[in-house]
Amino acid sequence: MKFTYETKKDTRSGFGAGMEYLSQNNPKVVALCADLIGSLKLEAFIKNSPERFFQTGIAEANMIGISAGLAIGGYIPFATTFANFGTGRVYDQIRQSVAYSGKNVKICCSHAGLTLGEDGATHQILEDIGLMKMLPGMVVINPCDYNQTKAATIAIAEYEGPVYLRFGRPVVPVFTPENQKFEIGKAIHLIEGTDVTILATGHLVWEAIQAAEILEEKGIKADVLNIHTIKPLDTAAILASISKTGCVVTAEEHQINGGLGDSVAQFLSQNRPTPQEFVGVNDSFGESGKPADLMKKYGLNAAAIVEKSIKAISRK
Amino acid sequence: MQTQELKNVASQVRRDILRQVHACQSGHPGGSLGCTDLLVGLYFNSMKLAQDANGNVVFNMSGANEDIFYLSNGHISPLLYSILARRGYFPVKELATFRQLNSRLQGHPTPHEHLEGIRIASGSLGQGLSVAIGTAQAKKLSKDSSTVYCLMGDGEQNEGQVWEAAMYAPHHQVDNLIAFIDENGQQIDGPTEKVMSNRDLEAKYKAFGWTVLRMDGNNMEEVVATLAHAKSLLGQGSPIMILMKTEMGAGVDFMMGSHKWHGVAPNDQQLADALAQLNETLGDY
After folding, report:
1. How close does chain A come to B64, measured CA to CA in Å?
2. Are B138 and A62 in contact (CB < 8 Å)?
3. Stated pTM of the model
4. What is the ipTM of this complex?
5. What is the pLDDT of residues B208-229, one digit of tens each?
6. Stretch 105-144 of chain B: residues touching chain A, C-beta under 8 Å
7. Nearest to A275 by CA among A240, A308, A235, A237
8. Nearest 5°: phi and psi at A95?
9. Is residue B285 part of a domain?
10. Which domain holds residue A294?
11. What Pfam families does its record include (chain B) (predicted)?
């Protein structure tokens, strides 16, 4: 299958569109934001449902606690800010008041990863997937484009329990179907192949598709899966793919330590030891720069996936 | 309930606290004893709690159309557990499992073990006021006129999140909330004034936009009267803060006036000496 796109949009706008839908279709959904309404694209939600929006100011810890309290009162809070401030900064609040307390809070964060760009490493969190997936009961989702982020936003409102939804700042190709149904924990098989499995999440899914096309020119057939849900991991889909290919590359805009690849390795080492290569940030912080330049410098693009795929195949 | 009856309940609750902590040789008796009169006043007099047709309390997580209490300083869990059990949320004999393996009565309160009456995990300090504010706002959104209460410690005021919440509640006119600070003047490393002075909490909360009241938290008449007064001030645009002077270890002479009993369990002789000062009014478990 050939993937194409007509427009590029930011995934955070997909979140905003999902929230606009929820403002009209789910009266239990409330939104909170820590002084970043424009960045999170919440304008439409606030316009439609001003009484269901809570401005917390630049006070993320309080926002998480208030979200837990709103959840106890029967609402479905979507707590929103940048990924750095919505996870690492408030880890204990999420751990105690949300995860351990079992509250139906959706932590929805934009500007995850290197593609935040010029603001630099202070804001470019690359540990958030790891932090969130370690919490018992926490669902972790990293959708790949505008349409999928919108669908995921709508889907998590229907799911009872804590969720971390991670998305980003830059415009990226919109290549998944409009109005798709999003199934939490169900990987999407994008490209059929038998030589190498590529498991990608978030912004790296499009890069994985590009990599598969480059590999095909070299006579290598990649089996590409969109792992939009890191936890719970779709181990059945991963196992089915690896049974065909016998090697795997994982790709994510995150530290290798603690990310999707880490979850995959943990599963495969116990169930089907398989040569694995990791596309991710290798134990370093990011820096200022244009998103595409950063992704190139840190080895998070199609070229890097191609290189790691060839290496993975050589280790079979 | 009449004041004398409330005092009788408080005496039994203090016995429960001491016996729980003694049995597992672990837990926090000092602050628990200090806040006993407040929680008895709340749960046995002031709070409107959901009940079945027979007048027994029933627990719903949402707390819709009933008053809700949050304990932010979760280490005084033996107090909360005794109050909940004596009020009828779970069997009193379950107090014997406090801090034991496989118990619902964890060291710090949690809804994780599905203990009736507990809605949030607390003990990692500074988080309860935010949760209380969120629930108060949920009540407003649902047109539910009941009240949310929250107790914090004075040492807990060191936590930055408390001040985020303190700023938020008046800004959003969360006026269906009554919070308390247990001013026992002690924290783990010594007197609060020495470890990290709160200076003037009344001035601070007033400056943030709260209505501030004061009371002697170990005087049942004053507790009941102040709670009634605070309720009369609800719905006027401001959250209410009650600064409550208490004595750690209140009710047991040798535990008072010292920080020594913050997190120390009495031995057999000390338990006997303490229980001798507290009437068994409702029957020990």
Report:
1. 7
2. no
3. 0.97
4. 0.97
5. 999 999 999 999 999 999 999 9
6. 110-112, 119-124, 126-139, 141-142
7. A308
8. -65, -50
9. no
10. 188-314
11. Transketolase_N
